[in-house]
Amino acid sequence: MLSLHRDWDDIMEKEDHQQGEEQEVKICDSSSETLATSLSLLGNHMFPDSVQRNDSSDSQLSDLAAAVEPCLKSEPSDHVTRRENEGPENGVPTQPADTEPEDADVENEQSDSGDFVAEMLAKAKLEEQGIGLKGRSSPLLEAGNDESPALMSHRDEDVTAESWRQHRKHVFVLSEAGKPIYSRYGSEEALSSTMGVMMALVSFVQSGDNVIRSVYSDGHTVVFLQKGPLVLVCVSSSRQSEQQLRGELLYVYYQIISMLTQASISRIFEHKKNYDLRRLLAGSEKILDGLLNLVDSDPSFLLAAVHCLPLTCSLRDSLSQILQKAITPNLVFSILIAKNQLLTIVQEKTVIEDTRLEPADVHLLLNLIGASSAFQAGEIWTPICLPLFNPDCYFYAYISYLDPPDCTVCLLLLSTDKEAFYAVAECKRKIEEAMVTQKSLSLIAKAQSYSVSQVGVSDLRHFMYKPFDVPDHYRQLSQFTSPEMEAPYSSEEEKMRLLDLYRYMHSRIHSTSRPLKLIYHVAERETLLAWVTSKFELYTCFSPLVTKACAITAITKLLRWIKKEEDRLFIRYPAKYSTTPNPSKSSRGAKSDQQDSTDNGFLSLL
Amino acid sequence: MALRELKVCLLGDTGVGKSSIVWRFVEDSFDPNINPTIGASFMTKTVQHQNELHKFLIWDTAGQERFRALAPMYYRGSAAAIIVYDITKEDSFQTLKNWVKELRQHGPPNIVVAIAGNKCDISDAREVPEKDAKDYADSIHAIFVETSAKNAININEVFIEISKRIPVADAVAETPGRGFKLGRQASESRRMCC
Predict the structure, then answer these.
(1) Residue B37 in contact with partner chain A when CB distance is under 8 A
(2) Which of A54, A483, B67, B121 could form a disulfide with A37 if both were Cys (CB 3.0 to 4.6 A apart)?
(3) Where are the beta strands (DSSP E) in A533-574?
(4) Is some CB atom of chain A closer than 8 A to the CB atom of B20?
């Protein structure tokens, strides 16, 4: 590996001088042909355009090939043989010493994608039309796939096909040894050489005491994230900012951690560097797929906040009280979910005094429940890690729907005791009973998201509001509120278009180089206004003919309306209970609990 | 009628049809696109066996490797284990043998073991001969059936066989005793009322 890096060093010397240590290595095609060339290797068709631009740099290409080759060879077994089987159309040179075949490869690439630019342009259209494969969850994510959706799961996709290349956002996870762990589209085996090249890029930049962060090409942004022994790569044509894409990769990492814990992943790879982590993730691909679909379609991830279902204050309080009464030792969180949105969450007092529950952990839980129908049968008992709470430990989650067979209201009880199933299941019975007597289920069934028309501002089409003004004392979960997306944003593709506009506004507001406080953005079919203050973050969407003055008046009205409705829109006072078995602690807990309940505006129950 | 609770766990490779068997038994339904189980799923069903009611507390475990370490939690204290393999997958039969070994080493001493060769509706793709599996089951004194959760073949039979094999001795010692006691209390209270 060392000698390999020396080769790379020669090629990259220039960049290394230009970029300081720890600095972002941004490689634009024009400024550094070399790395772009290596990216053509990635190019199982990802960057055919850069290939086209760089076919002059033969010698560099062969250098790179020489570098890539030993890297792959250092990997025992499958990789090399698979590469050979795949042959030239894979775009990875097989004979490093000889430049000829590579040229042929490049040629192939070119003819393969002769009209690529045109296709890239057409692609945007396809995306807008929302031609997709996966249907239900988000048909927008795949553009123009020729294969019959019924017969082909995206995992069986032909990774050499144009349709594969055209996916809006690819996500790959690999181990430091270059072993594939997950690919959003196509099978990991078929992509093992592509992932090998990704790893070569990462370790090459690493050898110069630097970190590869992103690569920009005309239509694509490639973002790298290295977390422990895992490398996550996103290849996106979505125009999202690098920061946003990296945030999404972090979610993928957290979801993997939530299944395996960080400690066990480190242990596994310390023990065996080329371990195939897919063995442990087998059957869980759906959860990662689900997460990526949710990340694309649900602004909660963008805002790092939780969206709760609007409920009258009294109903939410009564639900919290039901949860508060059904407790057992070592119970830490009781969470009630309806239609994949939070109804209420009750937390163990002493635990939550130490650490607050992060929105990301709640997102992972919501995704887990939404992504699998496995929870609709019986009562589930499964270990789960909340990576932001503690990346190295498991909670034991009891998951059961309260309204079979509809399965819309889901109860999630998290305990630290792995043997506590029967005790926790007993809590569920209590909750179920109390909900029957209070007729909670029928009340929950009536609850729904609200329409923007309720705000009473005519030009306002949609908004997202995330308050910061919750007193820290409550260790409140970050939340946001947003109405249903209604016409003209009722179709999937229009929804996605609006979300893309919001993502753009968000990236401008949160730009690391030049952050903004207020943006008034006149787009083609709507006008957007984003505003961040010390108290809130707000994104609004107006009809295109709105005037600036009008929009500002509208926002004043909107803020007034939210203030009036905030008890309904947000979980205002997170409820707590004390289940710590330690008697001294629990008595203390009970005492402050009482105090807290008055603090929280609940009538004292004791 | 006396009620006995019997803890039963299902073990076996991923994708062999453990959840499908449980669904067929409990709900009498079948979903060809069932999702992989996460952790373990708990369900109950009560059936009559002779003059007793047997309430099966069924732990349907996930076959994925990452949940493997949790298995002892589910088979500990079990009266019976149903180990499932897929007759069209030789590998799953090898996994089954490992489960038998593990149960023997760490499981409850008197656990009733049932071996279910699932997916017998697609015997065209069979990889595990019925005779091999039967011989193996006999060698470890296990119940053996080939099942099809899809076509509801032999599913109830597995549980009926388990009911039969559960030692009656336990029942004499515990359940009827409790039932008798309750009965007497009831009659006493009635007398007091009068």
Answers:
(1) yes
(2) A54
(3) 536-542
(4) no
Tell me whether B73 touches chain A (CB under 8 Å): yes
* A306-449+580-605 carries CATH number 3.30.450.30: yes
Contacts of A363 (CB under 8 A, 6+ apart): A251, A294, A300, A301, A306
Q: Which amino acid is at A104?
A: A
Q: Which residue of chain A has the CA closest to B45?
A: A378
CA distance A565 to A559: 10
Q: What gap in Å lies between CA A396 and CA A423, rounded to an integer?
A: 12
Among A526-540, B144-158, B175-189, the range scoring the smallest mean pLDDT is: B175-189
Q: Do B14 and A283 touch (CB under 8 A)?
A: yes
Among A188-192, B77-81, B118-122, B162-166, the range scoring the smallest mean pLDDT is A188-192
Per residue in A228-282, pLDDT (tens digit) is 999 999 999 988 999 999 999 999 999 999 999 999 999 999 999 989 999 999 8
- Chain A residues lying within 8 Å of B63, measured CB to CB: 283
| Range A19-134+145-297 classified under CATH 3.30.450.70 | yes
User: For chain A, where do the domains classified as CATH 3.30.450.70 start and end?
Assistant: 19-134+145-297
Binary contact (B38, A372; C-beta < 8 A): yes
CA A149 to CA A134: how far, in whole Å?
7
User: No. of H helices and E strands in chain B?
Assistant: 7, 6
Model pLDDT, residue A92? 35
> A377 contacts in B (CB within 8 Å)?
19, 22-23, 27, 41, 43
Largest distance between two CA atoms of chain A: 83
pTM: 0.77
Contacts of B15 in chain A (CB under 8 A): 283
Looking at every residue in chain A, the average pLDDT score rounds to: 76
Query: Which residue of chain A comes nearest to B37, CA vs CA?
Result: A374
B41 in reach of chain A (CB within 8 A): yes
B39·A383 Cβ contact <8 A: yes
- The CATH number assigned to the domain with range A452-569 reads 3.30.450
Token output for A567: 């008890």
Q: What is the pLDDT of residue A371?
A: 84
Q: What is the DSSP string of A38-96?
A: HHHHH-SSS-HHHHHHTTT-HHHHHHHHHHHHHHHHTS-THHHHHHHHH-GGGS--S-T
Which of B15, B42, B63 is opposite residue A378, by nearest beta carbon? B42
Residues of chain A with CATH 3.30.450.30: 306-449+580-605
Q: Give residues 108 to 137 of B whose Cβ lies within 8 Å of A.
A: none
The span from the first CA to the last CA of chain B, in angstroms, equals 26
User: E strands within A65-211?
Assistant: 169-175, 180-183
The pLDDT score that the predictor gives to residue A411 is 96
Contact B39 A286 (CB under 8 A): no
Nearest CB partner across the interface for B43, out of A373, A374, A378: A378
One-letter amino acid of A12? M
